[in-house]
Each structure stands twice: as C-alpha cells, then as structure tokens.
Amino acid sequence: MDHNIFKDLVPNYIEHLTSKETNKQMEHHMEHCEECRLFFNNMKQELTIETRQEQKNEEQSIDAFKKVRIKNRKKIVTIILTLLAAFILIMISYYFLFIHMWLADSKDIQTTVTHQGNTVTMIFKTENKDHYLILPSSERPAKGYEDSLLVYEKRNDFSKIATVLQKGTSLTYTFINENTLLLPNGKEHKLTDSDIIQIKYKDKIQKIPLKELYQTEIEQK
Q: How much is the pLDDT for 38?
C-alpha cells in the first residue's frame, strides 16, 4: 500500500469507517512500515485528545445549561411563593377589614331601653372608635319565647353593612299589655317568667325577662 494512501485512510480507519479488506491492508502495511505505524499512533493520540476535549466541552455546556435551568427554576419558585404569600396576605387583610366580626365586650357596649307607649326599644351602641355593631336577627321558637342575640363588632371599613348600621343598632318589641307580647306575625303571646331575651357578649351572657323589659326603663353600660 502506498504511504500517502495509507495516511489518507488513517482517520477513517480510526473511526472504523473503512472496509475489512482495507483494514487488513493497512494493518499489514503498518507491520512493515515504521513511519506509517508512528503516523497512525500519533494520529490516534491526537484524535483521542480531541474527542476527550469535545466531550469535556459538551459536559461543561450541559452543566452550564443545568445550572441556568436550576437557577431559572428557583426564580420561578420564588416568584410563585411571593405571589402566593401576597395573595394570602391580601385575603387575610380583606377578611379582617371587610368580613371579620367578633363578639363585643359588654363593657364597650352601651345598652339603652326606651318606652314609647307599648313599644319598647333596646338600643345598642359601641363606644369603640371606628367600630360598628352588628346584631343578627334571632330565631324565635313557636312555643315559648326566647330571643338569643349575639352582639358583634367589626372595624370601620367600606362595606355596605357598616355603612348601614353605623355606630349602633336596635331591637324593638311591641306589647299589648304587661303580660302580652305582639309577635311580628301579628299573633299574641302570653308572657311567662321563662320568656327572656338572652344577649351574648364576649365576656358574659345577659338574660332579661320580657316582663321586666316592659316594666322597667333602664340604661346600662
């Protein structure tokens, strides 16, 4: 085999791209030609070094890509967590500013009972600045009579309920006489000692007999 042909075929031989017949001829030539044998060994060494360098560069590129991806992933997670925290903070703030109510303390509520004919009105006012009172309607049973009231407070805000109720609220009862109550449905109810108004505050429960409510005009704090 000619030396120049051998040298031209060496790169393909190293990459296993030559035929079996060509391989035999090249191997036979190297057995008898030291110059070509040295050329082959040098070429193989150079290609090996280049291959390793390429692998190293590729690994570095992959590592760099992984680092960028991890960094971007951390940024995305950070952004998501920040947005989630902001959302939770907004929801908590909204709850406390616009929804949250709590049982009022009796010492912060001024209760006044007034009479106008047979109509008795209980007026509840809060003395806390920037607070509003909310007095949910009670469920009145068919038998007997008991009003269970929860006196709530909420902070000053822009919600509709605070605008309507403002600083106080009231509850009105109409009596036919000291022993008879006129119910909202127009029916009459004969009062007994068990007919009461139960007012629940944060610190205590106040029970007022309806007969006492009719007979006594009170103002308490």
A: 87
